[in-house]
């Protein structure tokens, strides 16, 4: 199956966490071999004039969004917060992973969007607990999953 036909999970992360994102991308693609994980570093076209529109389209066409929140997100997370808003607007199932951050730490911050606090958060080290739900949302024929064309 060509990579364009595989369902895509959009991975939102702070640029400071690209190593963690690369590892998570590899692990999920290894576990869910029919799924592609979109990351900015690997998949964003260089020279793209309108990056915001490109990110919006990538979120819109995804079967799920993995949202990796770290202390860096809380410091400079404007782009990530927009990606979360896109996922909410398009009804894309969103899974939040906390890395080097507890839920209590997250709640104590003023700039965290209510969308984050309203969702169940999972510690990043427990990412495997999300695999069954990701598999379900990205299964061929599931809403949001991209089917192979003729």
Task: Describe the 3D structure.
By secondary structure, this protein is an alpha/beta fold. The chain has one domain (3-137): Toll/interleukin-1 receptor homology (TIR) domain (Rossmann fold, 3-Layer(aba) Sandwich), CATH 3.40.50. Helix content is 43%, strand content 15%. It contains eight helices and five strands, in the order βαβααβααβααβα. Helix 3 (51-60) packs across helix 5 (78-90). The chain is globular, with a radius of gyration of 15 Å. 33% of the residues are buried. The mean pLDDT is 87.
What is the 3D shape?
globular
CATH architecture label name: 3-Layer(aba) Sandwich
Number of strands: 5
Give the CATH level 1 class. Answer: Alpha Beta
Number of helices: 8
The H/E string reads: EHEHHEHHEHHEH
Count of structural domains: 1
What's the layout of helices and strands?
Layout: E1 8-12, H1 18-31, E2 36-38, H2 40-43, H3 51-60, E3 64-69, H4 71-76, H5 78-90, E4 94-98, H6 103-108, H7 114-118, E5 121-123, H8 131-137
């Amino acid at each position: 199956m060509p990579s364009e036909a595989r369902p895509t999970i959009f991975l939102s992360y702070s640029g400071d966490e690209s190593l963690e994102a690369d590892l998570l991308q590899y692990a999920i693609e290894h576990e869910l071999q029919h799924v592609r994980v979109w990351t900015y570093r690997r998949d964003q076209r260089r020279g793209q004039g309108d990056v915001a529109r490109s990110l919006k389209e990538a979120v819109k066409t995804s079967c799920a969004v993995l949202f990796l929140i770290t202390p860096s997100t809380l410091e400079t997370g404007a782009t990530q917060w927009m990606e979360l808003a896109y996922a909410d607007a398009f009804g894309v199932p969103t899974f939040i992973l906390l890395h080097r951050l507890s839920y209590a730490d997250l709640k104590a911050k003023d700039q965290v969007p209510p969308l984050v606090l309203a969702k169940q958060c999972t510690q990043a080290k427990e990412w495997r607990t999300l695999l069954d739900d990701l598999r379900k949302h990205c299964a061929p024929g599931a809403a949001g999953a991209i089917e192979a064309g003729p």
